[in-house]
Each structure stands twice: as C-alpha cells, then as structure tokens.
Design goal:
One of its GO terms (molecular function) is dynein light intermediate chain binding. With 470 residues, the chain is α+β, with helices and mostly antiparallel strands. Helix content is 60%, strand content 7%. The strands form two sheets. It has a four-stranded antiparallel sheet with strand order 4-3-5-6, with helices on both faces. Strands 1-2 form a two-stranded antiparallel ribbon.
C-alpha cells in the first residue's frame, strides 16, 4: 500500500466522523456479543455437572475497504441438559432440574408396605384408595388405630378401628397420642404396630401376659378396693385363656400368677386379698390336675383304635404329665405354695394330694410307654401287611403282649389286657377291610375277589386260634 492510499484511508476516516462512530459501535457490539456468549457458556457449565466446551473466541477481520470488524463463526449456544448423579440422594432439592422428589408421606407409605405382611397379599392390592386411607390416618390426629386385613372379595382392607368382620390375620398400627404424623422418624417414635396370626388365642395370651398384665399389677395409683377386684378378675381371665390356648394343642398348662413373686412369703401371707387371689389360682390348678387324672383310662374307652394308637396315646400322656411335673417344680409354684402354707389355706392339702397323685401317674405312664414301645415295630409291620401275611406276624406280637402282662404294673389286670387284645383285633379287621374292594366285586372280578375274601376269612380264623392258644 502506497502513501496515497494510506493517507486517503486515514483522511477519509477523519473527514467522516459518522463512519468512524459506526466502526466503533460495530467493534463494541462484537465485543458485547462475545462477552455475552462467554457468560452464557460459563453459566451453562456451572449448571452442568460435566465439562462444558470452550467458548469460541471472535477474531478481527479486515473488510475490503480496510475497516476492522468482529466476525463470529460460532453457532448459537444450545441449552445445556443437567447431568444427574445416579448416586445422589433422592431427597435432594432438585425439582428445578426436572428430577422427581419423594415426599415424607411416600417414605412412610413405603415403610408401611414393608411392615404389612399378610398371607396372600399382592402388590396390586395396594390401590390408590388404600393409600388415601393411610394418608387420612397419618394426617388426622383423631385416627388413633389403623388395621389391615384381607377379605376374600374386597382384597386388602383398611379400617380405623378393630374390624368387625371375620379375619384370619391382622396387622394393626396404634398412635401413642393423637398427633399428625409428618415424617418417618415421627412415625417410628409415635406409632406402635403388631400383628395377630391365625392362632388368635396365642396372640391374645402373649399380649395380655407380656404387656398389659404387668402394667395393671404394677399400678400403685388405684384404690385397694378397685385394684383387688380388678386383679381377681384378671387372674381368672388369664387362667381360663391359658388353659384354652394350650388345650387346643393337647397340652396342660398351669397359669402361674406373677403377682406376689417379688414379696417374701411371710409378708405376702399377711395380705388377705393377695392370699385369696392365689387360692383362686390354686383351685384352677386342682381342677386341671383332676381332669388329667380322670383321662388316664381314655385309651380303654376308644373301642376302634389299634395298638399303634395305644402307643401314641401313652406317649402323649407321658409327655403331658412330665410337662406338668416340671411346672410344679418351678420356683414360682413353690413360692405360692409356701405363701398359702404360711397363711394356712384350706385348699393346700387337696392340691398337695393331687400333685402327689400326679407323680404316681407320671411314673405309671412312663412305665407303660416303655413296655408298649416293644410293640411298635411289629405293629407297624402288621399295619402294612396283607391278609395272608398277618398270621405269621401275630404270634410274635402275642408273645410280646404276654411279656408286658407279666412285667408291667398297669397291664396286669384281665380287663386291661383284654382291651389291648381288642385293639390288636381291630387292626386285623382294618387290614382285612382295606383288602376287600367292593368296586372290583361289583365290576365282575369274581376270581380275584373270591381269593381275597378267602384269605381274609382264613386270617381271622387263624387269629382266633392263636388267641385261644395263649
């Protein structure tokens, strides 16, 4: 470029101030756009958890007329998408970035889902109506009780109280106070929960004896008249409940009151009301011991049972009597007996007599079981044998019965020995009856049916001969 061109450009710029201002504005505008672009990119990088691409820098270019302007080659910045850390806490406040945030109520609902364990409960039974009822329970302080159970028609049901419908399993929630539950921590602190299984008596007995009875008996604020009457009724209820709960399983369980166990016997004997309550419990014990003693000949009454049923009867009876003997040897029973002995109770002699009789019956049952166990294996073979196989098994069993008759303290009377042979006859009859197939007879299988009938007749005749030869 020569001197003339340079001067002309300089002079043109100086002579035309509007053109010079335009060029300055253009440069400023370009710098402003570049600054805005850098700022926007920087903001986007701060929002994003990844690395943002570097902002394109503007560069100067010379036009054909020698003027300098800012040229931008970058595209408009695209909106940045926030990158969410998968390990981030779900409770973080990220609603502005489009991330779902769980509420405290939803955390409680998930916790209740884990606590409600009912047989047959499916995930689809947790409908929106059920969730709405749970929210009502959490939000309404007046709703203190919430129960879950499954109905065959309605599915999962929720009630704010004890259900009046029949149910086999129940899960309950009880607020300690009338409060509105706002979060999971408060739910754990202010709400108790539990369940009743299929064994309602067992659940009720465990709840009463383990939770409520100690609270009632330990209350020192009640007047003596009210406390004595209430304690007496509660002891009677627990004694009956204990008896029913264990009798359903064929076990005799004594209700042992927890009241007065921490008091010396001499001091407790001076409390007349306490002595009367302990006497009521001892009367219930005497009734239970009498029932156990009267059932010792139950095996003789059952005319249709076999020798294996006789063995099982004495096995169960021995276990029951041994269990009662262990209960009578407990320190708590001895302490109550000592209290009533000091108080000179009129019920104590009868109880001691029944307890001594129980020890005798326990030894007798154990002796009977020891001898009858010798018949177990041969009688099992007899129970699996066919009619034509039984005559060769019966002599061995008869010989063992004779050994029992000679050595046992119980099976040494004619009527009792006859009862044992009657049970053996019942087993022979049952095996012959099982071998006869009436359908085959009426379907025309004459030869095989006639053969089976002849074998049964011959078996019974041989059994009669074996018995007469004894």
């Amino acid at each position: 470029m020569d001197q003339t061109d340079t001067n002309s450009q300089t002079g043109g710029a100086a002579d035309n101030p509007s053109r010079q201002g335009s060029r300055i504005n253009s440069v400023r505008s370009g710098r402003s756009k570049a600054a805005s672009l850098r700022e926007g990119t920087s903001l986007g990088s701060r929002k994003s958890s990844g690395h943002a691409a570097p902002s394109p820098k503007p560069h100067n270019a010379t036009n054909g007329d020698g003027r300098t302007s800012v040229v931008e080659h970058s595209k408009p910045p695209t909106p940045t998408v926030p990158v969410v850390d998968e390990n981030a806490d779900e409770t973080a406040n990220q609603e502005g970035d489009g991330v779902y945030v769980k509420s405290e109520t939803e955390f409680i609902l998930e916790y209740i889902h884990k606590l409600v364990t009912l047989p047959g409960l499916e995930d689809e039974m947790w409908t929106e109506d059920v969730h709405a009822q749970v929210r009502d329970y959490l939000y309404d302080p007046d709703n203190r009780i919430m129960c879950f159970y499954i109905d065959r028609v309605l599915g999962l049901c929720v009630e704010f109280g004890v259900p009046t419908n029949a149910f086999t399993h129940l899960v309950y929630f009880i607020k300690n106070t009338a409060v509105r539950v706002a979060n999971k921590e408060q739910f754990i602190h202010d709400v108790q929960y539990g369940n009743f299984g299929g064994k309602h008596f067992s659940s009720l007995l465990r709840l009463m004896s383990g939770l409520y009875a100690p609270l009632f008996f330990g209350n020192k604020m009640w007047p003596d008249s009210i406390k004595n009457d209430f304690a007496s009724q509660l002891h009677r209820f627990l004694a009956t409940l204990t008896d029913i709960r264990w009798r359903m399983e064929g076990v005799t369980k004594l209700y042992i009151p927890k009241e007065g166990l921490d008091i010396p016997a001499e001091q407790a004997a001076k409390d007349k009301e306490l002595v009367q309550r302990l006497e009521s419990s001892m009367v219930h014990w005497c009734r239970q011991l009498k029932e156990v003693s009267s059932s010792q000949d139950a095996s003789i009454v059952d005319e249709n049972s076999g020798p294996l049923e006789e063995i099982e009867f004495w096995k169960a009876r021995t276990q029951d009597l041994l269990n009662i003997s262990r209960q009578l040897d407990q320190d708590s029973v001895n302490h109550i007996t000592h209290i009533l002995q000091i108080a000179k109770s009129s019920y104590l002699p009868q109880f001691l007599k029944l307890a001594e009789q129980l020890q005798t019956n326990t030894k007798k049952a154990d002796n009977n079981l020891t001898f009858l166990m010798a018949l177990k294996d041969p009688c099992h073979e007899l129970a699996d044998a066919k009619p034509h196989e039984m005559p060769r098994l019966l002599p061995k069993i008869v010989s063992l019965i004779r050994v029992i008759w000679v050595n046992s303290e119980f099976y040494n009377k004619p009527d009792i020995l006859t009862g044992l042979f009657r049970k053996l006859s019942n087993e022979v009859i049952r095996r012959c009856t099982a071998a006869i197939d009436l359908d085959k007879i009426f379907d025309g299988y004459i030869v095989s049916s006639q053969k089976t009938l002849n074998e049964c007749i011959e078996c019974c005749q041989q059994w009669q001969e074996i018995y007469n030869n004894v």
